[in-house]
UniProtKB/TrEMBL annotation:
Coiled coil: none annotated. The active site is at C34. The keyword Oxidoreductase applies. Keywords: Oxidoreductase, Peroxidase. CDD domains: GSH_Peroxidase (cd00340). One of its GO terms (molecular function) is peroxidase activity. InterPro entries: Glutathione_peroxidase, GPX_AS, Thioredoxin-like_sf. The keyword Oxidoreductase applies. This is Glutathione peroxidase. It comes from the Bacteria. Belongs to the glutathione peroxidase family. One of its GO terms (biological process) is cellular response to oxidative stress. The lineage of its organism: Bacteria, Pseudomonadati, Spirochaetota, Spirochaetia, Spirochaetales.
Length: 180
């Protein structure tokens, strides 16, 4: 269950996800130098609009995709605050795939696997890049790119996975439905 996991905040403190029991949680791996980085703005808007109604956001910066989150935790936080006025909690930069991945991500991926990219201007770019590196990439488990989002309901169930190509309006619809 999601509440069995913990993460480390950008300030180095342990955050037990059990503290979020009864909340809707959006978990997203982010990067500051990515084509999807502007998604920080609608994610922040979600937080502003729905935090008081029970939404929590876990921003987990990750440098595994194109080296697009190269800064320290403090530098990433400063970038997000200055450019996107983010107020939601930011976690310590972490791996989401591979031998050093956060146990939380091992669990999330076991609950909701990759089902393909949504229509988006960058869909072809991503697919071509992955096909050139490995023709079987889509069949392999794992997070494919920055700004993959997992949505957890108030009971701790992972109910949705949104690839970075998903329209943020679709994410918001799902959040609203879970908040009631």
């Amino acid at each position: 269950m999601i509440y069995d996991y913990e993460v480390t905040t950008g300030k180095g403190e342990t955050l037990k996800l059990s503290e979020y029991k009864g909340k809707v949680i959006l978990i997203v791996n982010t990067a500051t130098g990515c084509g999807f980085t502007p998604q920080y703005a609608p994610i922040e808007q979600l937080y502003k609009d729905y935090h008081e109604k029970g939404l929590e956001i876990l921003d987990i910066p990750c440098n595994q995709f194109g080296g697009q989150a190269p800064g320290s935790d403090d530098e990433i936080h400063e970038f997000c605050s200055l450019h996107y006025n983010t107020t939601f909690p930011q976690m310590k930069k972490s791996d989401v795939n591979g031998p050093n991945e956060l146990p939380l991500y091992t669990y999330l991926k076991s609950q909701k696997g990759f089902e393909g990219f949504d229509e988006h201007e960058l869909k072809g770019v991503l697919e071509n890049m992955f096909n050139a590196a490995d023709p079987d990439w889509a069949k392999k488990p794992g997070i494919k790119w920055n700004f993959t989002k997992f949505l957890v309901d108030r009971s701790g169930n992972v109910v949705a996975r949104f690839e970075p190509t998903a329209d943020m309006a679709k994410v918001e619809e799902c959040v609203k439905a879970l908040l009631g």
